[in-house]
Amino acid sequence: MKHLLIVLVILFVTSSGMSKTRYLTSSGDLTHYSIDIALTEVQKPAANAPTKVTKGTTPFVNGFLFDAANELYQLQFQIPDNWDGRTDVVVDLYVVLDQAETAGDVIDWTADYIASSSGVDTVTKASTNLVITEVVLAGCAGDNCQYKCDFTLPYNDANNPLVIEDVVVMEIHRTDLGNVGGVVLIAADAHYEPTL
Question: Which pLDDT belongs to residue 196?
């Protein structure tokens, strides 16, 4: 007999500004939390910064245009007290294409990050490098089409193991614009598994 999986998704916003998604399924209760990562002018370096732009109309969407391989942007967040301590943390970048692309092309990203523990680490410690790609789909290859690009931060990385209350600082940039040209970063978050 086939089993039917029923999923009810409930989204909460906590008083600390974190969003919590709870998946109530017929086979169990799965929960993950998200931390919204603010995109501000402060995170742009003085040189080699992406350009602040808007996309769309009514409402328009603010974001940062990455259309050169050397443009840098910094994301910062803290590992929360209720993280389970034994699963990876995923950082999502939400981007829109700045022009029409070809299906099968890839959006390339690189990140260098540190996870710094209070009273233990310096912010000049060795960083960990991550490289990701997202493939442009045939049904969403036009200008303004949205994509989610995921960086997985290993909880047990040799140089930057994650610890509760660590401050994570990520410097992101595009690696190669040979396939997909400019993309506009419009939002970012980190999600993790909480303690049960």
Answer: 73
Same domain (yes/no): 29, 47: no
Whether residue 64 sits in one domain with residue 142: yes
Q: How far apart are CA 168 and CA 192, in angstroms?
A: 13
pLDDT tens figures, 15-53: 444 444 444 334 445 567 899 999 887 777 778 899 999
Task: Tell me which residue has tokens 């294409």.
Answer: 97
**88 and 158: one domain?**
yes
- Cα angle 143, 145, 146; round to 5: 140
| pLDDT > 70 in the chain, percent | 84
Residues 1 and 54 in one domain: no
Number of domains in the chain: 2
Is the whole-model pTM more than 0.90?
no
Closest CA to 92 of 194, 195, 190: 190
Long-range pairs for 119-123 at CB < 8 Å and ≥24 separation? 123/169
Answer whether residue 72 shows pLDDT above 50: yes
